């Protein structure tokens, strides 16, 4: 009763006496009206005042189509251009053999993003259903986020390259550091090898960040 009295006091209803079912229903209705509507009146009024100060409220009244900007909905799919433009590239010195391999990898990377956007990047494993790679999965592998934040990433994501060997073995799969937002591309001599290793490396990676 004390707990109920505390909440009812917010409504100014502590003196309400429930004598019958009608009184009970009226009190319940008043309580629900307060909790779902009454508490929001002041914040909504402050929001409207702020929008009025900035001229936004009048613009919404004059152009109702602008209200769509404030309506939630499913986000649009990522595009290959968005992902391409998102990543800066850490190149080696111009004219070096490393730079030549890096520029080839970047060209492969950009073509590969287009293939993903067109639905052509599909992993086939014997005995399993084909798995289609999406740009959202690629972004999640590289950054840990499936969507580009409204204010962007900080720092901006970058592409690096896997020149160094591990135990005398070439690193053929992509690697990523989701904290530093760095995606490291493998260096292959042809597009088919690059595409297949990127595809399987990302889709079969047990955790984000390492394939």
Folded structure, characterized:
This protein has 2 domains: 2-70, no CATH class; 80-203, Hect, E3 ligase catalytic fold, CATH 3.30.2410. It has 7 helices and 6 strands. The protein has helices at residues 2-9, 21-54, 56-62, 80-86, 97-117, 135-143, 191-203; strands at 88-89, 122-123, 131-132, 158-161, 175-177, 182-185. Helix 4 (80-86) runs antiparallel to helix 5 (97-117). The protein is elongated. The model is unreliable at 207-211 (pLDDT under 50). It comes from Merluccius polli. It holds the Pfam family HECT. The active site is at 179 (glycyl thioester intermediate). Residues 138-211 form the HECT domain.
Which SSEs are present, and which pair or pack?
Blueprint: H1 2-9, H2 21-54, H3 56-62, H4 80-86, E1 88-89, H5 97-117, E2 122-123, E3 131-132, H6 135-143, E4 158-161, E5 175-177, E6 182-185, H7 191-203
Parallel strand pairs: 1-4, 4-6
Antiparallel strand pairs: 2-3, 5-6
Under CATH at level 1, the class of the largest domain stands as Alpha Beta
End-to-end Cα distance, whole Å, is: 59 Å
**Order of strands, widest sheet:** 1-4-6-5
Largest β-sheet summary? 4 strands, mixed
Mean pLDDT: 85
Number of domains: 2
Characterize the overall form. elongated
Low-confidence regions: 207-211
**What structural category characterises the helix and strand content?**
alpha/beta
């Amino acid at each position: 009763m004390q707990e109920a009295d505390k909440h009812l006091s917010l409504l100014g209803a502590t003196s309400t006496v429930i004598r019958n079912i009608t009184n009970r229903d009226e009190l319940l209705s008043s309580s629900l009206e307060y909790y779902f509507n009454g508490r929001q009146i002041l914040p909504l009024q402050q929001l409207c005042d702020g929008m009025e100060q900035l001229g936004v409220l009048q613009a919404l009244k004059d152009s109702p189509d602008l209200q769509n900007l404030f309506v939630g909905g499913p986000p649009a799919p990522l595009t290959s251009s968005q992902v391409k433009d998102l990543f800066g590239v850490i190149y080696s010195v111009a004219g070096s053999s490393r730079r030549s391999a890096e520029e080839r990898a970047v060209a492969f990377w950009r073509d590969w993003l287009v293939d993903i956007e067109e639905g052509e990047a599909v992993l086939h494993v014997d005995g399993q259903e084909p798995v289609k790679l999406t740009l959202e999965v690629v972004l999640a592998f590289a950054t840990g986020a499936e969507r580009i934040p409204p204010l962007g990433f900080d720092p901006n994501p970058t592409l690096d390259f896997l020149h160094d060997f591990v135990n005398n073995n070439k690193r053929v799969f992509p690697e990523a550091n989701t904290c530093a937002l760095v995606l490291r591309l493998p260096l292959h001599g042809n597009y088919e090898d690059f595409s297949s290793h990127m595809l399987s490396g990302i889709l079969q990676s047990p955790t984000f960040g390492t394939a």
